[in-house]
Write a structure and sequence with these properties.
Number of strands: 11
Number of domains: 1
CATH superfamily: P-loop containing nucleotide triphosphate hydrolases
Shape: globular
Strand content: 15-25%
Oligomer: single chain
Structural class: alpha/beta
Helix content: 25-40%
Length: 277
C-alpha cells in the first residue's frame, strides 16, 4: 500500500555564529492512514519535523530532503500558493497550546467559517450547518451559543476542542497534533485525545502525534518513533514500547514517575549509555 506521507533524509538547518546546525538530522519514515507518535525530550526535533512537513520553516531556516511526498505530491517542489491549498485542506496541524492560536477579535463561528470557506465552495447555510455539526462532534454542548463567543469567553478545554474542530472541519487526510493537550489538566487531556482519536478513526485519516508523554502515545498511537538530538533512535509498535531496546528509550521509560512507587529519586538519562550508537 502506498504511504500517505513518505520522508527520506529530512534535514532542518539553521545558521549560527559557529556555522550551520542541523536540528533535524536526516530522518526517514513512512506514514499511512494510521497513528504515529513522535516522542523525545524538548529540543529533540519533534516539532521541527511537523513544521517542516507543512513547509512552515522560514528563512534563515532551511529544509532539505531526498524525498518528502504527500499522497504522491513532492512537497518541496510545491509553490507557496500550492502549499496554501494543501495546508488546512489536506494536512492540518494543531499547534502547542492551540487555544492561543485563535483570533481574539473574531467569534468562534466566524473563525471556523473562514477556515471552511478558504478550502470549500459551500454556501452560507451549508457552512453554518457544518460548523454546528463539527462542534457537536468534539462534544461541545450548545454549539449555537458557542459560535457567538469570543476566545476569551471559553475555558481552556473548550478552546482546545474548538481549535481541533477548526483543523478537522475541512476533513484533511493528515492531522499533525503537536502537544495538543500540554496546557490542560489530566482529566481534560483524556477527553480531548479521545475526541481526536474518534475523529481520526471515523474519517480514516493519518495522525502524527507529537508528545513528551510516553504513556499517552502508547495509548493513542499504532507506532512510536523516538527522537533524540534531531535523530530517530528507535521505532516500534506502540504495544511493544515497554520492550524498547535502545538505551535512550529505556532511559525515558525508567525516568517516568509511577503511582505508588517507593523510589527516593528518579533515574536520569546517562547519555554515555548510547553515545556512538
Amino acid at each position: 500500500m502506498t504511504p500517505l506521507l513518505s520522508i527520506e533524509n529530512l534535514r532542518v538547518t539553521f545558521p549560527t555564529a559557529k556555522g550551520p546546525v542541523d536540528v533535524v538530522k536526516g530522518i526517514s519514515f513512512d506514514l499511512g492512514r494510521e497513528r504515529l507518535g513522535i516522542v523525545g525530550e524538548s529540543g529533540s526535533g519533534k516539532s521541527m519535523t511537523g513544521r517542516a512537513i507543512l513547509r512552515l520553516i522560514r528563512p534563515p531556516g532551511k529544509v532539505t530532503a531526498d524525498r518528502m511526498d504527500f499522497a504522491g505530491l513532492p512537497l518541496l517542489r510545491q509553490s507557496e500558493r500550492e502549499m496554501r491549498a494543501i495546508r488546512g485542506a489536506r494536512i492540518s496541524m494543531v499547534m502547542q497550546d492551540p487555544k492561543f492560536s485563535l483570533n481574539p477579535v473574531m467569534t468562534v463561528g466566524a473563525q471556523m467559517a473562514e477556515a471552511l470557506r478558504v478550502h470549500t465552495k459551500l454556501n452560507r447555510a451549508e457552512v453554518a450547518a457544518r460548523i454546528l455539526t463539527m462542534l457537536d462532534a468534539v462534544r461541545i454542548n450548545d454549539p449555537e451559543r458557542v459560535v457567538k463567543l469570543y476566545p476569551h469567553e471559553v475555558s481552556g478545554g473548550m478552546g482546545q476542542r474548538i481549535m481541533i474542530a477548526m483543523m478537522l472541519i475541512p476533513e484533511p487526510d493528515l492531522l499533525i497534533a503537536d502537544e495538543p493537550t500540554s496546557a490542560l489538566d489530566v482529566s481534560v487531556q483524556a477527553q480531548v485525545l479521545d475526541i481526536i482519536d474518534e475523529q481520526i478513526r471515523s474519517k480514516g485519516m493519518g495522525l502524527l502525534l507529537i508528545s513528551h508523554d510516553l504513556n499517552l502515545v502508547s495509548r493513542y498511537c499504532d507506532r512510536i518513533m523516538v527522537m533524540s538530538a534531531g535523530e530517530v533512535v528507535e521505532t516500534c509498535a506502540a504495544r511493544d514500547l515497554a520492550q524498547a531496546r535502545h538505551p535512550y528509550t529505556q532511559g525515558l521509560l525508567a525516568a517516568m514517575p509511577r503511582l505508588g512507587e517507593t523510589r527516593s529519586t528518579l533515574p536520569v538519562l546517562d547519555r554515555a549509555d548510547w553515545a556512538g550508537t
